[in-house]
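Structure, all three chains, one model.
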Amino acid sequence: MQGANSEKILISGIGLISAIGSNVQECLEALSSGRTGIVRAQFLQTRHKDEFMLGEVKLSNEQLFDILAISEEDRIRHTRTSLLALSAGREALLDAGFKPGDFGGRRIGIISATTIGGMDKSENSYPTRDLASGFVQTHPSGDSTDKLGEYLGIDAYRSTLSTACSSAANAIMHGARLIHHGYLDAVLVGGVDPLSRFTLNGFNALMILDREWCCPFDQNRRGLNLGEGAGFIVIEKESSVKERAAKSYCSLAGYANANDAYHQTASSPDGEGAFMSMSKALEMSGLRPDEIDYINVHGTGTSNNDLSEGLALKRVFGDTLPPFSSTKAFTGHTLGAAAGVEAVISILAIEHGLIFPNLNFSEPIVEFGVAPVTKLISRPVRTVLSNSFGFGGNNSTLVFSR
Amino acid sequence: MLCDGKEVLYLPGEDFPSFAKTLYKESGAEYPKFYKMSDMCKLGFLAAEFLLKDLDEVKVADPDQKALVLGCRASSLHADIEYSRTMNDIPSPALFVYTLANIVSGEIAIRHCFRGEELMLVQDGPESREHENYLKVLMAEGKTKFCISGFVDYDENGNYIAELSLIKKK
Amino acid sequence: MDLREKLKGELIEQLNLEDITPADIDSSAPLFGEGLGLDSIDALEIIVLLEKEYGIKISNPADGKDAMQSIDSLAAFIEKNRK
């Protein structure tokens, strides 16, 4: 194993598909105009159709097949998961200036993350054991990663991880470490999750869903809205970006992961895990808390998360709390994709000098006392801190900097 | 169940639920939440229990320096199937909680106060180049003193394996 | 069978309280915090039990809080609301 190098890790490409758009540009427009993508589901078949609003990607599987030009014979090998992953993964790779399979001799990898893999197909096919649908092959979490590798010509290094709602952040961290330690030159990292009855019913059983539009960080928040999508970025070592004379958006300046060790699905009341992941990520970045220009919070809108995260924010930032917002009222909580989706949003904030609003907000949480940004702000954004906290006490924070 | 190569308990032919129960009693752990766990979590919990038994230096170490890097193949498939059965009637929150691959790491972390990094990789089997690489990188960074590394898998047919090691930074 | 005794058995079953028998549960003792030391997920499972066994639907966990103080309060709640 080679020694660690201290080269900067730059983001050279971004890709996104979510409830607010099928690509980065569409999503940016929605974020800038305050337009949520959370509505009644169009494609997901569920008895709860009229009860909950969801952040569904506004394309059917058939439309995605056509856009991705997937041949008829090949279609059975896919799930909504792999289609979403391909959409955003391909966009990121092309944005970075790479062509599938053509990397100029560079060592490229994929680290992807998901919570339910091909469950969207399995939940329809398993009850009747419909083997012809191919669900047995497409169910595993690694399937969409393999599909990405296959379609984008990346086979040197593929890895899949699954740590609930912080999954994609951990994929990004994992990729960054591999670059730091000389294993790879560039990595396509991020996460994907589709909507499913499995997840909807499960979250409903935990009674943490909002039947209306979620209001993150609001005193009267009622829970979260589920969403689906994929967010991928290409992280690359600086020398490689320079050699290619490619553009870069910013650098991945810091990252950290810590375990709350409190409960399987709830965060500790004092936000210890969140406090640790934020503190360590900042420490690694070399930035002071008051040097952060914007925080994209995890902000799911649940009673537990927002309070816990709020208290942790206070502990880390004290009186110098930067403008912050949760963008989950736009996209919904996209679970395994969330940190990837929000990494792209954080990078867009830096690229375009925009701080996106926290929709549906009325009054601050009493114990926290601070309001998020509620209107689009246009000003230079050089540094962003992004939080993603998952079940199992898995807390991750990423810091982006230009 | 083997610990450092020595046999702790051998119950051939016993199904996992009863084997786990016997092993739990054998471990001497007083942890009623054990009974609420999915089979995959019980598996990981028990392996960790015996792994860390009598290791006082781990108990007293700074929680921030204790990490978990695990791999699995079938993810939480067994728990997913159990939960999905309840979807036909009233979905069970207690079963849903376990429908994520990394809850087993969470359970171990809660039990032994591991507050450092936590990662769950999805692998083809116990041997994984990616897992090895990640471990080397993590330990080289220097912030982790102890790391539980290994493979915990419980598939849809009830086949199971857990192999855990404790890695210590010199 | 007395509703309280029935409830104790049902809770033991529903919440996987394996090493506990109905005799171990004091009807007036707190179910959460001390006593049986149940947590938020157990509370949700009790809500499922109330719907499945007694036809009582609670849509907001906060509504069930008072009812779930103890076996006594749970029994009283069921007697008042059962279908």
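The longest strand of chain B covers residues 146-154.
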